[in-house]
């Protein structure tokens, strides 16, 4: 297809309303067991006018370079309709002891759990064959294709096209068996033992702990209110001294750009552009781990309702404005194909699904599929079926966005309760915080130097901080509240010596949040010998 | 607890009928989100009179030795009922958009797909809280414990206790995200780059392909009609020359003991004992990959029906005799705790579940759980819920065995059709086979030296065989049948130069099986210039 670079970028934008017509024009789903799916046909055709991604093959590690397609699966791909396969040992679906499944889902715009206003859907074993549905138990319960079922890939490709509109042509989506698994796959694809990867100075502890046993070290870059500092990133890379560090210059940049875990910071668009420019200059590969992308805070319908002036936007307008107000992702800025974006269903649908998705260049995605073949194969077929039924057949694209609008309002209310409780119960002279704009986490800084033991010990400063952090943590537990120590999240080489606690407003009920923060305030005051 | 080694082993045997009383006596399930489950309480209490497993810590690789528990999860374990957690970012179940699920399952003894005789079960979101059920959507859809849900671990622990009765005390079951994932976890726990592992001379190609990119090499041990040769295994180990091989002496033995893939061979009990004795002598660690354990062949109810004298055994008697006739597993012979047994739901329930289980010593299982925390976390909650509902709540332990009896009769019929077609269509002077006693595979040897091109080429013998194998394979495809080349399954160092094809009777319909073998016969005859 001809590449016309002077086509204005916005012209290639797809909207949810374009999708039904596009589905009608494009090829039918194969409806077969584990078909090798080329997601190209699900994309906005104007996408092919964009330039192709650059190659990042030089960034693959030995393990990834040694990996190819699974022989038996590759042989299966040679089959055409007339060939009878006596090849792979796939059981016949008649031996799957699951005959029918039905599910009930909440309906918008209220999405109330106890409302009678709910949608249900019944799924039979042979609905595809019987032309009743695009997906069924016979296919979802058999072995699956390593990128996931064509049915779900279609939905997610359309979703990514509309929401992120990646600026290169050959991007692809693949399912993952959850983002934790995807991050492990990242290490197994790019990193050698001894390598450094770059992260925010404080980052998700499970990522740090997944890297360590693989011999992958982290180097944290300081953050400010707009997220990871692009100039400090530039400084780290320009000044990298391989002999001194005992490692090659790092090229993998792991970021949590929205509602960062643990700090709650959301990178501004300008900051994202600056970081991407550094990545272009130093040929970095970016892992955009973005589970909180849609959980923006500060948009409460409840707040307006209290003010007596709640407004119900026309639904489509609400969807459009929600999408417009999202900070553009790194994927949407990625002219070179150097971003692997990890989306998660855990925070917007349910963690137990273990069925999330990633988006990147076809070259890199293909390496992950080889790895899937030898490890997780693909997410559970029942999870895929449940997610597809809900998103594609019941809610549709706009319905998902309306659900996200609902979540954003719920989490905003939770945050507000937590902030009010913090204002009331935490000693403001030693506790400080920023209001998070997205996510599930509130990050509280405590001035540990005000603690009676801050100067008394003979230990180095950092160890004194850790001692006091542990005292506050244990005192909290005794008072009946568990908060996470900030030190759990420190990447390698973190410079500061401040003390933080991460608290989440995602799990506990509203009264519990209030009570828990009150207990935490009491614990801090007792530790710091302050009146409460 | 006192260890009384002279207690006759049979006394400690548990039977399905003991389970209801034991469940009543033992502690209640926690009914919480991701509780850390100690499966001890689900076991036959007499189990604790057995000796403990030996330690195999000296067999762990650097990665496994560097791994510990995930910090946030470990912190969660410190919680008691009065502490409010603001710790891990687990969404509240009110935000899971799944309100209700119901499923329909076939009922025994016929288990017919189209029968009205079926069982159904409805699962609500808060059934545990509402005291309606042991498992629900709120718990299964949240983050899970790395060994799987307590509900399913209970069922599987009981199942393993009755079926395998491991002869040491501290064995444990954990779920896996499918056996492919479990095998990857095995390599990541025991093997260093450059190591050799021991396998059967022909083995599952996906295992070979999973090992290769990790730099793990395989050395195949020849087989006879009773499986891997114990004396050749002894010879390989006694004669291992590390400098010559450029690798330490191998200690990991990967076996598919029942209905072996690809050869269809089932190891006799005597052979298993001989192999285990070699393992004891050389301190091997055994991976018992046994997905076909329950798919025994040669027990067709249809055959008897044709003879007009079908007998319906009383159900419990049928269950007892089925269990009695299973060849004992390596797990059931494992006095030292040197076996990790991998069971699969893929061949007995459905591959799309990606939810299987493994059994081994507590020490080794704990290492796998650390790895799960950093990778797959645990299988899909919906898969766990579906499997638990079917096995525990609908069928029960005996119901599962009745389903397996049904499957064994179905697969026997499929095998019989294939064997009849082979007798009829394959040229017996160059094609030979054994009748498989278990599994899904039929292994056909073809005397390639009878091929017109067998002697003509200037190539080495092995390459000539491969050329002819490829000609037969391609001719088959052109004739409309796909069979798997035997060479795909050759482990490293395989000595023989024979030609095989693996065909499965699991997937195609009965008429297709007949037609496919007829086509394959025609392809062979054309290639070998024989009348068909």
TrEMBL record, chains A, B:
Protein name: Aromatic aminotransferase Aro8
Domain Aminotransferase class I/classII large: 174-520
Any one GO molecular-function label of the UniProt entry: aromatic-amino-acid transaminase activity
Organism this protein belongs to: Penicillium frequentans
Entry-linked InterPro entries: Aminotransferase_I/II_large, Class-I_PLP-dep_aminotransf, PyrdxlP-dep_Trfase, PyrdxlP-dep_Trfase_major
Gene Ontology BP, a term: tyrosine biosynthetic process
Protein keywords: Aminotransferase, Pyridoxal phosphate, Transferase
One Pfam family it belongs to: Aminotran_1_2
Family indicated by similarity: Belongs to the class-I pyridoxal-phosphate-dependent aminotransferase family.
Required co-factors: pyridoxal 5'-phosphate
């Amino acid at each position: 297809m001809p590449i016309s670079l002077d086509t204005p970028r916005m012209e290639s934008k797809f909207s949810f309303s374009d999708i039904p017509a596009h589905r009608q024009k494009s090829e039918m789903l194969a409806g077969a067991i584990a078909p090798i799916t080329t997601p190209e046909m699900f994309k906005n055709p104007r996408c092919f006018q964009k330039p192709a991604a650059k190659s990042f093959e030089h960034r693959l590690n030995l393990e990834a370079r040694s990996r190819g397609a699974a022989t038996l699966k590759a042989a299966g791909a040679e089959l055409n309709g007339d060939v009878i396969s006596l090849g792979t040992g796939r059981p016949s679906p008649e031996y799957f002891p699951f005959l029918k499944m039905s599910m009930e889902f909440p309906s918008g715009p209220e999405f109330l759990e106890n409302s009678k206003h709910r949608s249900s859907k019944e799924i039979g074993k042979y609905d595809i064959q019987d032309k009743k549905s695009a997906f069924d138990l016979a296919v979802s319960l058999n072995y699956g294709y390593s990128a996931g079922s064509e049915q779900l890939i279609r939905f997610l490709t359309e979703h990514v096209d509309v929401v992120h509109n990646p600026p290169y042509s050959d991007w692809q989506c693949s399912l993952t068996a959850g983002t934790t698994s995807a991050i492990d796959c990242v290490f197994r694809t790019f990193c050698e033992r001894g390598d450094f990867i770059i992260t925010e100075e404080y980052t998700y502890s499970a990522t740090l702990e997944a890297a360590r046993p693989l011999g992958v070290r982290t180097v944290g870059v300081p953050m400010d209110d707009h997220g990871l500092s692009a100039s400090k990133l530039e400084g780290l890379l320009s000044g990298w001294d391989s002999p001194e560090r005992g490692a090659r210059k790092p090229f993998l940049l792991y970021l949590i750009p929205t509602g960062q875990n643990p700090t709650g910071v959301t990178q501004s668009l300008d900051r994202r552009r600056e970081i991407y420019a550094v990545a272009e200059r130093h040929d970095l590969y970016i892992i955009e781990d973005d589970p909180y992308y849609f959980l923006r805070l500060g948009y409460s319908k409840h707040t307006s309702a209290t003010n007596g002036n709640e407004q119900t936007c026309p639904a489509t307008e609400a969807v459009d404005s929600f999408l417009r107000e999202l900070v553009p992702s790194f994927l949407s800025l990625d002219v070179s194909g150097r971003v692997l974006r990890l989306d998660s269903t855990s925070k917007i649908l349910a963690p137990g699904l273990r069925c999330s998705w990633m988006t990147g260049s076809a070259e890199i995605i293909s390496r992950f599929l080889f790895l899937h073949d030898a490890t997780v194969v693909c997410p559970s077929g029942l999870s895929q079926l449940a997610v597809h039924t809900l998103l594609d057949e019941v809610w549709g694209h706009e319905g998902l966005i309306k659900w996200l609008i609902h979540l954003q309002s719920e989490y905003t209310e939770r945050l507000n309760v937590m902030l009010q409780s913090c204002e009331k119960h935490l000693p403001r002279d030693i506790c400080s915080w920023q209001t998070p704009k997205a996510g599930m986490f509130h990050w509280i800084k405590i001035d540990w130097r005000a603690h009676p033991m801050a100067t008394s010990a003979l230990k180095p400063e950092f160890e004194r901080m850790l001692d006091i952090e542990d005292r506050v943590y244990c005192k909290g537990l005794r008072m009946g509240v568990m908060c996470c120590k900030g030190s759990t999240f420190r990447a390698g080489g973190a410079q500061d010596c401040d003390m933080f606690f991460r608290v989440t407003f995602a799990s506990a009920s509203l009264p519990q949040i209030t009570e828990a923060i009150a207990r935490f305030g009491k614990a801090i005051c007792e530790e710091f010998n302050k009146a409460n």
